[in-house]
Amino acid sequence: MKAVIINFKAYGEGSGERALALAKAVKEISEKVDFYMAIAPNFLDIPEIVKSVDIDVFAQHADAVSYGSHTGRITPEMLKEKGVKGSLINHSERRLRLADIDYLVSKFKELGLTSVVCTNNVSTTRAAAALSPDYVAIEPPELIGSGIPVSKAEPEVVENSVKAAKGINPEVKVLCGAGIATYEDVVAAIDLGADGVLLASGVVKASDQKRALEELVGLR
Ligand SMILES: O=C[C@H](O)COP(=O)(O)O
Q1: Which residue has the least CA distance to atom 2 on ligand 1?
Q2: Radius of gyration of the chain (CA)
Q3: The pTM of the whole model exceeds 0.80
């Protein structure tokens, strides 16, 4: 099943009570379509959403450390304890070192968490795929939040990332993201070989989030 993962980022429109409402809207829509839909709210909203909404919840980041003397860190074990499905790793707005990405992908496997490693171009997608995460998500940073969909503006980046990742490890699923907002954008991504999309502003910043969700998955 193709995946649609919605990152709430640190947007006010996807925080607190609004995060909970949006999570419920995503859950409701997910029951009407043939997409795997999941969300990535901020850390503070995760426990409440996990408790109240039956949907896969991802963190937006994890730190490459285990329990111990670290201040202000979120370890994979903590995420596991809170009932999250997995996490974005190395998002463009929260980059990590290669060794940290490697640590997290391995630790996630050990804990049964799903890893979504974000990348910015074909070469980094190839490098990320070599670590055998569950997903890589190719997102050209300049298109993030631009409203210009990567699947239309830079189709070759998506297509070549899919080829590069599958060439290294056919098991790795490839998402694309940046500027995705409509069903047409999603279909374009899938036509380029992507296993789904990772998006944020097209839904979270929309004046009518539910309507934006419906448009995204082809219900309108
Ligand atoms: O995690 C999501 C990506 O950074 C894409 O963001 P965007 O949909 O606002 O362009």
Answers
A1: 199
A2: 16
A3: yes
